[in-house]
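Mods, move this if it's the wrong board.
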Amino acid sequence: MLIDGAGISGTESICRHGVAWYASRLGGSLLSLLSLARDRSLSALLAEAIEQVTDDHRDTCDVADPISPSATVAILRLSDGLIEHLVLGDSVLVLDRAEGAPLVVSDPREVIISRSYRSVLEAAAEGSDEYHRVLRELRANRNQPGGFWVAKDDPQAADEAITGSCPISELTGAVLLSNGASRIVDRFRLADWPGVMAVLASSGPTEIIHRVRQAEARHAVAADDATIAHCTDLGEA
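Not the wrong board. Structure tokens:
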């Protein structure tokens, strides 16, 4: 499971807990539910986890505000010979198949909407009033019809997650990446997904993140959180 929190610094008046608290609490709720309710769908478990975390700070924070903490989610579950997966938001999950190209599971809606804001954000000084204004406008598209969907305060967002399954026997491995790590393919074009899987097999996640950091420095792009969970030997699970 991979949780990538999102939020704007300096918004303690909206949520006194912050992004790290939200991501950690959501992850803890999900892990508990995944271990105890193996017969329920991943979407149903994510919806319950979102509701639990929202209830934890509903009375102290403005959970409905567009810039209150949120998170993207990627889940991989091994169950009765199947690999089940879920992606909500702009994290990426890649299934390395024994035959054929890797299967890439992603949700492009946030990326598509964010493109129209990118030039304005890059022109504004990070942390400035204008930067926060544009971010607020962008994030007002979250969990709205025609917008994009993340884990935040509305459990129904889980119904918008990308889900699927396949037999374990068809896979040799899998990887879950935050959008900061998937930049190696979708932003900097340093590799394709088969190339990423080859680097992971030979050098591990650290090498992928190292190459992303080099590209960010080279292009003067602000570093983003980069997290990778690499799963191997699935057939032996």
